[in-house]
Specification:
Structural class: alpha/beta
Largest sheet: 8 strands, mixed
Shape: elongated
Number of strands: 17
Strand content: 15-25%
Radius of gyration: 27 Å
């Protein structure tokens, strides 16, 4: 089997909710002891993750059948990926409370049934009753659209073995983001943290080269990737799966984001204090997927001093702000250049770019990095500056120390002691 066939099989889409199948169930279900179809009674459908909420209109004579309706629908929808069904019932005439469901005596009786206990269901967003408002003329009352709420960072479950996920991002390419990622990861490791690295730059992975393990491929145990090791850190990149540096990853957005989610979720990460994720440039599909589906503790923005880079960096900050991801600080790369012959210091890319972003968004400037040929030479050899102890070593370690102070202020998640793996 070729690497591509193997990779395609491994990155098959994960089992999620099947909206078309849900529509079929809702359209074909017939109410008990009658010929009335459920679709004629639905006034509101709300899908959030794997939780489906339905608002339906019923008559008082159907009150005793509510639990049967709920249970039959829950069984049918479970095959479509729905793990929880919340049924909210509006009766057109005032009725008495139904056993097993709550009721309201306000002209219309409202009942609710849930697949979970009421205490758990109370944490869900409320279902809006749309029965009092007529449907638009152009809408199809027999096929109400499923309204999918956008995932929020606060709703993403924490990884059981990773305390903090830190994104290293930039608005544009070529600002030294990947080099900064590996050196900060190594710096945090030197400061005593357990650190891992995930290369999320699906289309241009460079982490394998910079950490000296290009060409290696991870083992697979129990359908899980075993991360590779580099300088004592667990590391994984899409570059480790292609087998060489010449094969392009020519995937459209959904396939690329699906691959990234499996690199994160289907990897046997050890117990980590921090997982550093090297982000691709821009604010596209992969950034949105990470922000909505991976539990992120914070982000670090890498920029250069010139205005073009600053404009793109601000877009990245705005994206994280909207996704409720705290920006821990800014790193100004290529801040200054010192001539190797005469020692003259020159600010080739401008002055004060990092300070401007820091002041504008009230986030700390973690530090500045020089434009130094040794950084590039050692990264190309697979020996980052923190390992090679070159002239940039102290700069990276100073930034790592500032980043550690920011990480220590983040809220920590208590480990579930009942887990056995």
């Amino acid at each position: 089997m070729s690497w591509f066939s193997s990779l395609k099989a491994k990155f098959a889409p994960s089992q999620e909710v099947k909206e078309e199948e849900i529509q079929k169930v809702l359209q074909s279900y017939c109410l008990p002891n009658s010929e009335n179809l459920l679709k004629d009674r639905i006034s509101q459908v709300n899908l959030q993750g794997q939780i489906l909420q339905l608002t339906i209109n019923t008559h008082p004579s159907e009150a005793e059948q509510l639990q049967q309706i709920h249970d039959e629908l829950a069984d049918a929808l479970e095959k479509c990926g729905i793990q929880e069904l919340n049924l909210h019932v509006i009766q057109q005439k005032t009725g008495q409370a139904v056993s097993g469901c709550g009721s309201q005596q306000h002209g219309e009786a409202g009942h609710s049934c849930s697949s979970k206990p009421k205490a758990e269901a109370g944490n869900l967003p409320p279902v809006v009753d749309a029965s009092a408002k007529p449907e638009p003329v152009e809408a199809d009352p027999n096929n109400p659209p499923i309204q999918k709420a956008a995932p929020q960072q606060r709703d993403v479950p924490k990884h059981p073995r990773i305390q903090h996920v830190i994104l290293v991002s930039s608005g544009k390419g070529g600002v030294g983001k990947s080099t900064t990622t590996v050196n900060l990861a190594l710096g945090l490791q030197k400061l005593g943290l357990k650190v891992g690295v995930l290369d999320a730059d699906i289309y241009g992975p460079s982490i394998p080269t910079m950490l000296g393990n290009a060409g290696q491929t991870p083992l697979i145990e129990n359908e899980q990737f075993v991360p590779l090791e580099a300088y004592g850190m667990p590391v994984l990149s899409i570059g480790h799966l292609t087998g060489d540096n010449n094969t392009p990853v020519a995937w459209r957005g959904p396939k690329a984001t699906g691959a990234l989610m499996q690199l994160f979720n289907q990897t046997l990460w050890p117990e980590l204090d921090v997982l550093m994720i090297d982000m691709p440039p821009g604010t596209g599909d992969i950034q949105l997927t990470l922000a909505q589906r991976i539990p992120v503790s914070g982000a670090v923005i890498v920029t250069t001093p010139q205005n073009v880079a600053l404009l793109d960096a601000t877009k990245g900050i705005e994206l994280f702000n909207r996704m409720q991801i705290p920006v821990l600080g800014v790193v100004e790369n290529m801040s200054t250049h010192i001539c190797s012959n005469c020692g003259f210091e020159e600010r080739i890319f401008g002055v004060g770019g990092g300070d401007k972003i820091s002041e504008q968004y009230h986030i700390p400037l973690l530090g500045r990095l020089p434009l130094n040929a040794q950084i590039r030479e050692n990264a190309d050899k697979g020996e980052p500056s923190v390992v090679a102890m070159d002239d940039a070593h102290d700069s990276y370690m100073a930034i790592a120390e500032q980043l550690l102070k920011c990480i220590e202020k983040l809220p920590k998640t208590d480990k579930d002691q009942n887990r056995i793996f």
